[in-house]
Amino acid sequence: MRDVDELRPLTAGRLLELWQACRGVEDPLERVLLCNGRILSECCFSQGERVYGDEREVLADLTGRQMERLLRRLGSDGGDRRPRAETVNPEFDAARFAALWRE
Questions:
Q1: Which of 16, 23, 60 is nearest to 39 (CA)?
Q2: This prediction's pTM
Q3: What are the beta bridge partners of residue 45?
Q4: pLDDT per residue as tens, the chain (103 positions)
Q5: Are 45 and 5 a contacting pair, CB within 8 Å?
């Protein structure tokens, strides 16, 4: 299993697009594996870079249980999602904020 240090959730619209792209696959197991592979290929990052290029790389690298674990982590609100640099205000002063909040 490749190193994954961040899972970035997809929008509901993107998840729907990925599911719709897999709907034509008749075999239910194949459809689920392909769709989950596509999801993970877009969500798994290591040091800010995507870990997998496409679903085939995911399927070649991960077992079904490993995929399930990553998808569960992705679906939870656990500590898997780290704020990206562009969403963190470097000027934010937590102590000042707390003092103003108490006023």
A1: 16
A2: 0.72
A3: 6, 50
A4: 999 999 999 999 999 999 999 999 999 999 999 999 999 999 999 999 999 999 999 999 999 999 999 999 988 854 445 545 545 566 777 787 777 777 6
A5: yes
